[in-house]
Amino acid sequence: MTATALEILKTVYGYDAFRGPQARIVEHVIAGNNAFVLMPTGGGKSLCYQIPAIARPGMGLVVSPLLALMADQVAALRQAGVRAAALNSDLPPDERRLLWRDINMGALDLLYVAPETLLRSDVLERLDGVKLSLIAIDEAHCLSQWGHDFRPSYRQLDAVVARFADTPRMALTATADEPTRAEILSHLAIAETDAFVAGFDRPNIRYAIAEKDNPRAQLKDFLKRHEGESGIVYCLSKRKTEETAAWLQGLGYDALAYHGGMEKTAREANQKRFQHGEAVIMVATIAFGMGIDKPDVRFVAHIDLPGSIEAYYQETGRAGRDGLPSDTLMLYGYEDIALRSRFIEESDAPEQRKRMERQKLDALLGLAETAGCRRQVLLSYFGDHCEACGNCDTCAEPPKLFDGTIAAQKALSCIYRTGERFGQAYIVDVLLGVESERSARFGHDSISTFGIGTEHDNRTWRAILRQLIALRLVDVDLTGHGGLSIAPPGRDFLRDKPTLMLRVPPAARARRDKVARSAAQSAIMETDRALFQALRQKRLEIARTQNVPPYVIFHDKTLIELAVARPASRAEMENVPGVGEAKLDRYGPAFLAVIAAHA
Quick one: which of 430, 408, 426, 418 has its CA closest to 489? Predict the structure, then answer.
């Protein structure tokens, strides 16, 4: 490793050593080579292009998909003393002229630009005369036609690659399965020997998935563990986003809504409040997230089923970017499966795309229904692996299995004998022998399957039907009222009667009066917690005076280190991870004063 790279790491970023494959990647790119970097969110991808851009002669050009993400990274770099800027369509003419002057004078280390802006002919022509140290394409999975974040403009970046063929190029992502990785390498002409795959594991994230029982009660119980912390709650619809945010506000939370149907100014204002706040909950559709660089998101909850494992992985990956313990929760029911299936079938996509989307949904349902370690299933989807993690709900409380062969036969027979047109609730009533005006009217109180399922309760039958839908033994009428019918594999099952092991639904959770601290809150000793809170308050004051997010001053992880180490001098503070020279000069006295006051 070059002394220059280590010096930059220490003086600019405040760290003594690289993590994982960072050192190999940085050295590889400084030497003038291309690189594909797959590294989990929070693994330090940004350093892999920022340090080579600073070390090499010229200006680093970074392609980034969202203005908010660019603004975040530029603000953080400037705090660290790096000459960085963003070129985008929102810049006033005067600021744009000054920026181009700085670019032409060689006064920038890093320039961030959206692909749509970069591909404009006038921008490319002006960059022809600029010495570029490298071209880094962040969120590179956006160029995959089969990905959930596909951006057509990313597919056109091969023109930039050809135009600046002698400039080292990098493609970086945290979300790419094996076909997507191959597509990126091929499209950007990066050799497989230049690929660095660091794995997908985020060991600090706890994964939990549960059947929808009472979604609001389940979410409320989950949030009790995260008082005073920031997080994201994902919903499928705009209406549900607004209703959930209003409900949380009624419970006393600082909750905001975010979706694509909002006015741009309102959406941007809410995003800024989330980024600049210390305990804000964003209730959002998937339109929110990729541009969020906030490291202290302590939880992510899905109260509706996401679209794929890639989407789930990326959305949950917005928690715990700073490496501190973080929680996730996903709730789902058979209605979610039906809705996601309908989205696929009613789309205008070609059949090949629909087939792939069905496979992706099946993989997600496999993750939801697994009785094994969630992390193992999640990582195996991306071609990665791990031992049983001990940090997911199924590891903490392994679900019980039972031989569901007879139960499945009863459920399928009941669906058949009622005409394959009734929904889940009615089928369960018939299995339990619930007498009603409806069952009498249709004559279903006299069929052979009426009351044959009394060995299970309503909750268990709902779980059985949900699993049969997930296993594709049962179809849901996508255009009608959710009527259940037997799928072809279900008819094969009735004929062949193979053994079928199903999960026993967990018992309904009793209300807990005592709320445990979150894992992140427990990461700091009680004796240091008062100082940590005082340091957070000082950070917030400084951030507000500069109109920047608090985390660009110092991450929570650095504040914890300060609270534990309690440096009494500049020399001692310099040894705290995350404190570079520029921040030490700018903020050292203020934070040392807070520490001294708590001596």
Answer: 408
